[in-house]
Design a protein that fits this description.
The complex is a heterodimer of chains A (228) and B (482).
Chain A (H helix, E strand, L loop, with lengths): L2 H26 L3 H26 L2 H29 L11 H18 L1 H7 L13 H18 L3 H23 L4 H29 L13
Chain B lengths: L1 H20 L3 H24 L6 E2 L4 E2 L2 H20 L11 H22 L3 H19 L5 H34 L7 H5 L7 H19 L8 H7 L2 H30 L2 H22 L5 H22 L1 H33 L10 H4 L1 H14 L6 H15 L3 H26 L22 H12 L4 H16 L1
Antiparallel strand pairs in B: 1-2
Helix pairs in contact in B: 1-2, 1-4, 2-3, 2-4, 3-4, 3-10, 3-13, 3-18, 3-19, 4-5, 4-10, 5-6, 5-10, 6-8, 6-9, 8-10, 8-11, 9-10, 9-12, 10-12, 10-13, 11-12, 11-17, 12-13, 12-16, 12-17, 13-15, 13-16, 13-18, 13-19, 15-17, 15-18, 16-17
Classes of the chains: A mainly alpha (228), B mainly alpha (482).
């Protein structure tokens, strides 16, 4: 155990905690501009997590991936969301299906659920994965928590842009699980996935702008012209 | 053969670029046709290829018989849709919207080609997500409130669903890493060399199939499909319904082989049977309620994807051969049906079933195409879907799934009655209506007929061509059954 290793372990613990805190903040905050900022912090935490794993595994390539994650999820994608907020002029998620208290209760329940369902995953990779022991061991459930909270946001939010935030949280969660269980997917696939997510974020931001231009400040719930 | 493997991607990339930057209309008009042609040629060459499986880029691209067959279907349906969907204006200067449309069609075709040609499950996921990106603007192309609504639902539900599949792929990768060889190569994962952890593979497989089912339009992940397929421009609906669903379904087939090898067939059979029967029953119920003929066609796609899922659940050479024949027949017939529906919409100015009457008397050609395409889709002999449906039911009966086949037959009968009722109502009746439409713009409702006739002709003979189609299918099935 060198100083580098203990540094990596601390960074891992710190970033995992930050992921959970930002997820809770996103459930609770209503201001869309604030959501974009929290999303940037979450992206940076994810980059820190990747950096910590790179340090622990002594993998230079993963270090490069950490920088890509920082640029993409810490800066570019949150900027896309923030720009969408400015352009559309919709500042707040003013009609969520859950009030903040209920949202936090739901998020707590989902976190517990994530810890329960990640048991077989942790067991399968025990001793061979990157989170064999120590504080990293509780990181996989944190990734799954992000996935579930992302789904919660997509389902309970009614503004187009808040649903986009939910999708991005979901994606951050999947990325966290990938890095924690397998030190990330192969580099080519990682690049492809990152590009896809960036493009989807751009498209959804553009679409929400156009929806706003065509039909005004409506919630996604009011999109009900098409049905059987 | 390596050149043939890269041809669809090169063609798609080149033509997408050309279409995006040139404003010379012949380029934007024909780019989709040329791309589809390249995909079809490459697919046919790979189907005819004998000997070692062609590989490229360290096995990242690999075309076994199943990939070759699917690539051919993508090319054939793509050619039908893009050729029949040629814009009426083919000279002059292309607008910005036309350029973007043409470029996105080529990207879309290229992404589907990558999806069926790659051996890497991660890249397969990237390609399927790329189809969502390419089609997002195509669905919203018209820019109306309804088109934007459909595009939003499509991208949102599609991306969230497919993200779940990514989680499955990631966990599969983690399983292979724990087993000693970190890989997403389908060949390695199915070789049986890796001691994959059954618990992890079970979770991964279920998530991957659930996610891919979203793109394949299987109940209960189908909510976006009727909206997107009815609001997109006709050639795009043809491509999405005809092949995109099948490409996503192909992903499910590949995952199924990996999971079955590790944990046995029980898990995938249960999932696919539930989704398949669910799709059949829901579409059977909703076909009767449709008032819009494009939505009717979209629900018919849900029904056919359900049939394919049931076929994959049954498994074995006969059922899988039936599924693959079904993919070809459904793709060509549904593309024809959507293009024809687009022309009827142009002529009649309405997509409501009850506002279209007497089509046979006023527009015999369109009526003939619509009725024939519907006959193919409803599984009438001598068309391919008749044989595939019979094969599927026989295989299921023999496989001990008699009760499920009973449900399938009832659902098929209900869909038959519902679709036939709507189509017959549209074509029958006297010619004299409030608006004969003959005085409407001269080019409305016209366009190339040859590709549609050709596509229907292929579905008519495909069931009989055991020497060519039958052998290609048998070889493709052997890839899955081992």
């Amino acid at each position: 155990m060198t100083t580098l290793d203990s540094l990596a372990t601390q960074a891992l613990a710190l970033s995992t905690g930050a992921l959970l805190v930002t997820a809770a903040l996103l459930v609770w905050r209503r201001s869309l501009a604030a959501s974009a900022r929290v999303l940037a912090v979450q992206g940076a935490s994810l980059a820190l997590l990747v950096g910590a794993i790179a340090l622990e595994e002594r993998e230079v390539e993963l270090g490069v991936v950490a920088l890509v994650v920082l640029a993409l999820k810490g800066v570019v994608i949150p900027a896309v969301v923030a720009r969408g907020v400015r352009v559309s002029g919709v500042q707040r998620e003013d009609a969520p299906r859950l009030n903040p208290t209920a949202g936090l209760v739901a998020a707590t329940g989902l976190t517990t659920l994530a810890y329960l369902v990640s048991e077989p995953i942790s067991a399968a990779i025990a001793g061979r994965g990157v989170v064999a022991s120590g504080p990293g061991a509780f990181a996989v459930p944190a990734g799954l928590t992000l996935v579930l909270v992302g789904l919660l946001l997509v389902v309970t939010r009614r503004r187009a842009l808040s649903q986009l935030v939910g999708f991005l949280v979901l994606d951050n969660g999947i990325a966290a699980v990938a890095f924690l269980t397998a030190a990330g997917v192969p580099f080519v696939v990682e690049l492809g996935v990152s590009l896809d997510v960036l493009l989807v974020a751009l498209i959804l931001a553009v679409l929400s702008g156009r929806l706003h231009a065509v039909i005004g400040a409506v919630t996604v719930d009011e999109l009900d012209e098409l049905r059987d | 053969m390596a050149g043939v493997l890269i041809l669809p991607l090169l063609a798609a990339a080149t033509l997408a670029l050309l279409a995006a930057v040139t404003s010379w209309r012949p380029v934007t008009a024909w780019s989709g046709v040329v791309t589809s042609g390249a995909v079809l040629v490459s697919g046919l060459a790979l189907v005819a290829h004998r000997g070692p499986v062609p590989e490229l880029a360290g096995g990242l691209l690999r075309a076994d018989a199943l990939s070759a067959y699917l690539l051919t279907v993508v090319g054939a349906v793509g050619l039908t849709a893009t050729w029949a969907g040629l814009p009426s204006a083919r000279t002059g200067t292309a607008t910005r919207a036309e350029r973007r449309y043409a470029a996105m069609v080529s990207v879309f075709l290229g992404a589907m080609s990558v999806a069926v040609l790659t051996d890497n499950l991660g890249l397969l996921w990237v390609a399927i997500e790329a189809t969502t990106i390419a089609t997002a603007f195509l669905v919203g192309h018209r820019g109306t409130r309804r088109a934007l609504e459909a595009a939003w639902k499509y991208v949102m539900l599609g991306s969230v669903g497919v993200a779940i599949a990514l989680l499955g792929v990631v966990l599969l990768y983690a399983a292979s890493r724990s087993a000693g060889d970190a890989t997403l190569s389908w060949v390695v994962l199915t070789s049986g060399r890796l001691p994959l952890d059954p618990g992890l593979v079970r979770v991964a497989g279920a998530l991957a199939v659930l996610g891919l089912a979203t793109k394949a339009g299987l109940v209960p992940m189908h909510a976006w499909l009727p909206d997107a397929h009815s609001q997109a421009p006709a050639p795009v609906s043809a491509l999405m319904s005809g092949v995109l669903l099948a490409v996503a379904f192909y992903g499910i087939l590949r995952v199924q082989v990996v999971v079955d090898a590790v944990v046995g067939p029980g898990l995938m059979r249960g999932l696919l049977l539930t989704a398949g029967l669910g799709s059949l029953l829901v579409s059977a119920a909703l076909v009767w309620r449709q008032r819009d003929y494009k939505r009717l066609l979209a629900w018919s796609s849900v029904e056919h994807m359900g049939l394919m899922a049931v076929g994959a659940a049954v498994g074995g050479p006969l059922a899988l051969a039936a599924v693959l024949l079904h993919v070809l027949g459904h793709g060509l017939a549904k593309a024809t049906a959507f293009v024809t529906a687009g022309r009827i919409l142009e002529v009649e100015g309405t997509s409501r079933i009850d506002e279209v009457r007497g089509l046979l008397a006023r527009r015999p050609l369109l009526a003939g195409l619509l009725v024939t395409a519907a006959a193919v889709l409803l599984g009438m002999p001598p068309f391919a879907l008749f044989f595939s449906e019979v094969g599927l039911v026989v295989a299921g009966w023999r496989g001990g799934l008699g009760w499920a086949m009973g449900v399938v037959l009832v659902a098929l009968l209900v869909v038959f009655a519902g679709v036939a009722r709507a189509v017959l109502a549209m074509v029958s009746g006297p010619a004299a209506g409030p608006d004969p439409g003959d005085t409407a713009a001269g080019s409305a409702g016209r366009g190339p007929v040859a590709p549609l006739v050709l596509a229907l002709a292929v579905t008519a003979v495909a069931g009989f061509l055991s020497a060519s189609v039958g052998e290609a299918i048998a070889r493709a099935v052997a890839v899955v059954t081992g």
